[in-house]
Design brief:
Strand content: 5-15%
Helix content: 55-70%
Radius of gyration: 34 Å
Shape: globular
Number of strands: 7
Strand order of the largest sheet: 2-5-6-1-7
Oligomer: single chain
Number of domains: 4
Largest sheet: 5 strands, parallel
Number of helices: 31
Distance between the termini: 67 Å
């Protein structure tokens, strides 16, 4: 049973013990468990006190005349009559002879049944008769020690005239003498709507606000139907503080505090993470415990965040790509509120359909990126957990897909490698400290950290683009703490990037994609760093292009399946496809295509199918690249039409069944 909220129970007992001229409202947010608490805690306690609580949902009623029917339907006759703890002999009546547990249920159901007998309508308007006289049912329900609990009241306010509703409840309280408790949604009832204001003023005598003991409920849920190590892990302080609405960094975020009081969301997140924990526990058994715990804690915080965003319809499975591409940026002058934020530079007067649609997509992408960033900033980094991006978790929560165990293990291996690098590379260790806990430094420590970071940057101690972008942000922002000028800092940053690229022989396209996706989110003072890194990548790309083209052509002729794996996304793999931003297929000559088609093997047919489907039909970030590759598709179609046929082979059947179909789809979608 849920831990007892004594304030709520005491408040209700206090109301019941006093003379009253109105109803008591128990208010709380949707999903916070107020109805459950009333049923499982309050009602049993009131029954022990000698009260007979009658809980009624008003959801779906169309007239206040239905209220007596519902109340009678839910009225449960006491097992015995007690006065001052002494049993009194019950007076038998015709109602007691019904032998039913609920005294008014038979009559209420009978009235409803009679109103549906069609032939009675020929003699009397049964429905009107029943409705107009439904109040007579109160004669069967004693007022003494009876408390009527009305649930879903806010739904009725929108369907029934508020004055009629308050008249019906006033009738229960003032004229008939019942004690009435109303259960309502807090935010809804606080809206400055005339009907709600009138209702609260005329009907409600006192209001109790219910806030569940989230931590106690959470610990109880963790202990139900779960393996013991999971319960132990989840009830430890670090995991509990993720869902604790009283956690200090949540203080200024009212929206998040309300959502963490939503027990339904809490159960949803916990149920999903329980499965994630079970999968991870298999490959984490022999790993460093501290490292493994931090990995799990990060996934737990992310699961809570994604669950909230998903349940509030702010993120869906369609937002997977933006979640997967999240990259941690330096946290300077960032604010992550729960409201909207207008996109800069959007033209309100754009009217062309294509431009308007593009504007909508940009706003949606910005909104999604902001919500994803909010998750990691508010629920992961706020607890000093590592930022771990797990598309598998996102898929599991937002789409109910089975957990990809191998891919989840790959995420762990990537995190472990990163931690090992950070532990052996003091430059990354310092940057990590600045990004996650800079506020814990003293004035003197911050000065030393900035000077040391400038030295690491100048010496080229980092080996990825985003590290230099983040370092540049801190160095420029905190430049005034040192004796160095902005120009000095920029010189050191350029020197470090040059040193890094002096040792780079092949490019990471994931780095380039990150720069493209996140450029607008990078602080303005560091965007020049992005442009400089792009320039260095272009230099290397131009230098290596001829070698890349030769290797791609060799693989097309000699190892087509390997080329297909390079060019397309593999299930469960987080690696970015090669040549994502370059039309490599445009360099495969017609003669190579003709030769390959004439000697093609089944696995090569499927490799071609994989290439065409992955690069032309699935959603891609560089559509202009694949437009430039359309000649390859046309040449392939022509080569297949001219293929030499001595006899039908298995490869020929696959060409007809698979390859020609995907070519037809490309022709229908693209302009030839």
């Amino acid at each position: 049973m849920e831990p007892i909220n004594n304030n709520m129970l005491d408040g209700i007992r206090n109301y019941l013990s006093m003379e009253s001229t109105g109803a008591l409202m128990v208010s709380g947010e949707w999903g916070c468990g107020k109805t459950y608490h009333i049923e499982k805690v309050v009602m049993p306690a009131l029954q022990q006190d000698g009260w007979n609580p009658v809980k009624v949902s008003l959801f779906g009623i169309e007239s206040v005349n239905e209220m007596p029917l519902r109340i009678a339907d839910n009225y449960k006759r006491p097992e015995n009559n007690e006065v001052d703890g002494t049993k009194k002999e019950k007076k038998k009546s015709w109602l007691s002879s019904l032998g039913k547990e609920k005294a008014g249920k038979a009559l209420a159901k009978g009235a409803q049944f009679a109103s549906k007998i069609s032939w009675l309508g020929n003699f009397v308007d049964v429905e009107t008769l029943v409705n107009n006289n439904s109040g007579l049912l109160y004669k069967l329900i004693p007022t003494e020690k009876t408390v009527i609990i009305l649930d879903d009241i806010e739904r009725v306010i929108d369907t029934i005239d508020v004055h009629t509703l308050l008249g019906a409840i006033n009738d229960l309280v003032e004229h008939r003498g019942y004690k009435v408790v109303v259960i309502a949604n807090n935010s809804y009832m606080q809206q400055k709507d005339e009907a709600k204001l009138v209702f609260k003023e005329k009907v409600i005598e006192k209001t109790l606000v219910y806030e569940p003991d989230v931590v106690s409920i959470f610990k109880e849920l963790c202990g139900k139907n779960c393996i013991s190590p999971f319960t132990e892990f989840m009830t430890a302080q670090k995991a509990v503080k993720v869902i604790d609405p009283c956690f200090p960094s949540y203080k200024e975020d009212k929206g998040l505090r309300v959502e963490l009081h939503n027990i339904r969301i809490l159960k949803f997140a916990l149920a999903h993470f329980c499965k994630i924990y079970e999968v991870c526990n298999v490959f984490l058994k022999n790993e460093n415990k501290d490292l493994a715990d931090r990995f799990l804690l990060s996934l737990w915080a992310s699961t809570v965040g994604v669950s909230i965003e998903y349940k509030k319809d702010r993120l869906t499975y369609k937002d997977r790509s933006q979640f997967s591409q999240y990259v941690e940026l330096s946290a300077i002058d960032w604010e992550f509120d729960d409201g909207g934020r207008k996109a800069d530079g959007l033209l309100d007067e754009m009217r062309e359909d294509e431009a308007v649609e593009k504007q909508k997509e940009e706003k949606q992408r910005e909104y999604t990126n902001r919500r994803v960033t909010y998750i990691f900033e508010k629920l992961v980094k706020a607890h000093d957990f590592p930022v771990i991006v797990s598309p598998q978790m996102f898929d599991f929560v937002t789409a109910g897909m089975s957990l990809d165990k191998d891919a989840l293990k790959a995420v762990w291996e990537g995190y472990k490698s990163q931690e090992q690098r950070n532990s052996t590379n003091p430059a990354y260790s310092l940057l990590e400290k600045l990004m996650h806990s800079q506020w814990n430094m003293s004035n003197e420590e911050m000065v030393d950290a900035v000077i040391q970071l400038a030295q690491y940057v100048e010496e080229g101690k980092f080996c990825d683009n985003m590290a230099y972008v983040n370092s540049a942000t801190y160095l420029q922002h905190f430049c005034s703490l040192t004796s160095l000028s902005q120009k000095d800092m920029q010189t050191k940053i350029v020197s470090g990037i040059d040193k890094m690229y002096a040792n780079v022989s092949s490019l990471s396209l994931l780095d380039k994609m990150n720069l493209d996706v996140l450029e607008n989110d990078i602080p303005k003072e560091s965007r020049w760093v992005v442009e400089y890194e792009r320039k260095k990548m272009d230099e290397i790309a131009a230098k290596n292009l001829n070698d890349d083209i030769k290797e791609a052509r060799r693989q097309f002729n000699e190892d087509l399946p390997s080329l297909a794996n390079r060019l397309t996304i593999q299930y469960g793999d987080t690696k970015t496809p090669d040549f994502l931003s370059y039309p490599i297929l445009s360099h495969i000559p017609m003669e190579d295509i003709v030769n390959k088609v004439n000697i093609i093997q089944p696995k090569e047919v499927m490799a071609l199918y994989q290439i065409l489907n992955g690069r032309f039909l699935q959603q891609v970030p560089y559509p202009q690249v694949y437009d430039a590759e359309l000649p390859f598709v046309r040449n392939l179609e022509q080569a297949l039409a001219q293929k030499q046929k001595n006899k039908t082979t298995y490869a020929d059947i696959l060409i007809e069944d698979c390859l020609k179909g995907v070519i037809k789809k490309i022709k229908n979608r693209k302009r030839w």
